[in-house]
């Protein structure tokens, strides 16, 4: 591998080639924000505000309460919460004790929660009240002995809390959506904090090399695994993200947390990076266009991380309503390809930049991003972050780089790369290579000037008759048909060719496309072996919590139906 980094020429002025290796734990970022900007609004939850001084005190009390329950260095603590102030407090309180946060999606089924809770062995679970009974129901299959229920309505502004007490149908409906009964023996988060004194200063905190987070992968290629991320990993990625955005002002930004904090993407940009610069974090319990636009009137966003469908829907709503999002200087898109037309619409309504980036849970997660400048490149994921290296390797010999412009597996190394999977040494050895490189599982190409573009997933590659078929290429062709709203392409076993290409299509509203006509359309635009042998119609496709189509699940459903 050459020592040259051709992508450095694309860095905007002021973005360094490398960052200093973090020498303090992630909790130091919160301590610094509290010290420098105590009166700055740290959290805005539907209008209720928390300053950095208040956040620091709440974290101290929460850490004290957890310490009294026996939580100590290295213990895992499960968080099963939507975006809310209690989530932020719990996250930093666990870290303050040198314990390990384990994030979970509160919409998981009982079986999904049971598997993960049993895997990491947490004895304490801090969860939304509506999830508490589910956790209690599976506790016997896990190590969980203490369940702490969080009342979301306690974080609402006083007026909204009072409105929920009214004996009116809308109030009853909202209460039912936000609250749930606590099972016998469960503790109240609000009462624990009210009764706790600040944590004693002599309680040991974490070291920069300690494990901070177990983040379970989305499971798009098999059983979810717990990625082990240290304070150094997370602090490095927060610093890389900070320096990547020219003009970010300490104590002067407003980040919108519409991405879930329990997902690596939302956690890094909307929580750790935001706290690193003492930004105001506008927390929304879910993505809702009306909720975003309402919040923007009250507290205009300056930095907006999201996924392409969010930008599409917000742009359409602004064009229709005349709402104002012109305060957004920078928007970051990830998790799926960003269509150029989405960029045009968003930048037309905001006047700011919308750029695409790339990452994976195992890398904290961000590794590559488009320059936040005129040098950004549509259709590309961009160039490696500071202190990050990337190369395109021959899939048959990972020690060999592919010739310029040819596809291979994308390999990454940098301070944000994880140390392995929890209790899975074989799986760890399969992705971590000598020299600090991690296999991404993505097929990519690199341009001469160091811009990377994703071709497809290695594990989702279809091999039919000895030929490689990249699902995204077939999907792009089918998606261009006017009767196709969305599509997923997968490979199914075939006695003749090894695998056959199958497309599952969501029709455009009001249409019922003819599968044979769609196949003919594809054959006109693709080599014969790439065209789908079979097309199925469906009302919707399975997606992850941030909107990515789950091809593996599509494939499993087709296999089960055959």
Characterise the protein shown here:
This protein has 562 residues and is an alpha/beta fold. The chain has 3 domains: 1-26 and 232-457, ANL, N-terminal domain (Rossmann fold, 3-Layer(aba) Sandwich); 51-205, Rossmann fold (3-Layer(aba) Sandwich), CATH 3.40.50.980; 461-561, ANL, C-terminal domain (GMP Synthetase, Chain A, domain 3, 2-Layer Sandwich). The chain is built from 17 helices and 26 strands. It has a 7-stranded mixed β-sheet, with helices on both faces. Helix 2 packs across helix 8 (189-195) and helix 4 (110-120) crosses helix 5 (129-138). The protein is globular. This is Long-chain-fatty-acid--CoA ligase.
What's the total helix number? 17
> Structural class of the helix and strand makeup?
alpha/beta
CATH topological fold name of the largest domain: Rossmann fold
Average pLDDT level: 93
Based on Cα principal axes, name the global outline: globular
InterPro entries: AMP-bd_C (IPR025110), AMP-bd_C_sf (IPR045851), AMP-binding_CS (IPR020845), AMP-dep_synth/lig_dom (IPR000873), ANL_N_sf (IPR042099), ATP-dep_AMP-bd_enzyme (IPR050237)
GO molecular function: ligase activity, forming carbon-sulfur bonds
Keywords: Ligase
Protein name: Long-chain-fatty-acid--CoA ligase
């Amino acid at each position: 591998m050459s020592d040259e980094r051709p992508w450095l020429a694309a860095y905007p002025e002021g973005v360094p080639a490398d960052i200093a290796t973090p020498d303090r734990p992630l909790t130091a970022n919160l301590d610094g924000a509290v010290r420098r900007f105590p009166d700055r609004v740290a959290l805005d939850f539907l209008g209720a505000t928390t300053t950095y001084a208040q956040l620091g005190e709440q974290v101290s009390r929460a850490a004290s309460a957890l310490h009294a329950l026996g939580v100590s260095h290295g213990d895992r603590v499960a968080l099963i919460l939507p975006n809310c102030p209690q989530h932020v407090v719990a996250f930093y309180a666990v870290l303050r004790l040198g314990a390990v946060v384990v994030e979970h999606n509160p919409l998981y089924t009982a079986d999904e929660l049971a598997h993960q809770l049993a895997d990491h062995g947490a004895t304490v679970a801090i969860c939304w009240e509506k999830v508490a009974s589910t956790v209690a129901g599976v506790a016997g299959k896990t190590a969980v002995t203490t369940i702490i229920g969080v009342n979301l309505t306690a974080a609402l502004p006083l007026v909204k809390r009072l409105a929920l007490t009214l004996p009116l149908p809308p109030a009853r409906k909202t209460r039912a959506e936000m609250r749930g009964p606590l099972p016998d023996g469960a503790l109240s988060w609000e009462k624990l904090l009210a009764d706790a004194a600040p944590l004693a200063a002599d309680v040991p905190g974490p070291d920069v090399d300690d494990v901070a987070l177990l983040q379970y992968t989305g499971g798009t290629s098999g059983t979810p695994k717990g990625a082990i991320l240290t304070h150094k990993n997370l602090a490095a990625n927060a610093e890389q993200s900070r320096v990547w955005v020219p003009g970010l002002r300490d104590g002067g930004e407003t980040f919108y947390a519409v991405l879930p904090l329990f997902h690596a993407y939302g956690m890094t940009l909307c929580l750790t990076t935001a706290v690193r610069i003492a930004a105001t974090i506008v927390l929304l319990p879910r993505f809702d266009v009306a909720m975003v636009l309402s919040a923007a009137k009250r507290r205009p966003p300056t930095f907006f991380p999201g996924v392409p469908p969010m930008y599409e829907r917000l742009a359409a709503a602004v064009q229709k309503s005349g709402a104002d999002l012109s305060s957004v200087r920078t928007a970051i898109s990830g998790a799926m390809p960003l269509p150029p037309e989405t960029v045009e619409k968003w930048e037309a309504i905001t006047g700011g930049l919308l750029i695409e980036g790339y990452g994976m849970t195992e890398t904290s997660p961000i590794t590559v991003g488009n320059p936040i400048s005129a040098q950004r490149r549509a259709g590309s994921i961009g160039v490696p972050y500071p202190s990050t290296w990337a190369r395109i390797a021959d899939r048959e010999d990972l020690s060999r780089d592919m010739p310029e412009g040819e596809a291979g597996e994308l390999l990454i190394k940098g301070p944000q790369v994880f140390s392995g999977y929890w209790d899975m040494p074989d799986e760890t050895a399969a992705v971590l290579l000598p020299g600090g490189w991690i296999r991404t599982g993505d097929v990519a190409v690199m341009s001469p000037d160091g811009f990377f573009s994703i071709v497809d997933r290695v594990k989702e590659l279809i091999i039919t008759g000895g030929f490689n078929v990249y699902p995204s290429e077939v999907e792009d062709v089918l998606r261009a048909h006017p009767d196709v709203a969305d599509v997923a392409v997968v490979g199914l076993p075939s006695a003749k060719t090894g695998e056959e290409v199958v497309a599952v299509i969501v029709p455009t509203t009001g249409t019922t496309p003819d599968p044979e006509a769609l196949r003919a359309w594809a054959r006109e635009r693709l080599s014969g072996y790439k065209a789908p042998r079979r097309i199925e119609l469906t009302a919707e496709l399975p997606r992850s919590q941030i909107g990515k189509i789950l091809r593996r699940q599509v494939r499993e459903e087709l296999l089960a139906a055959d």
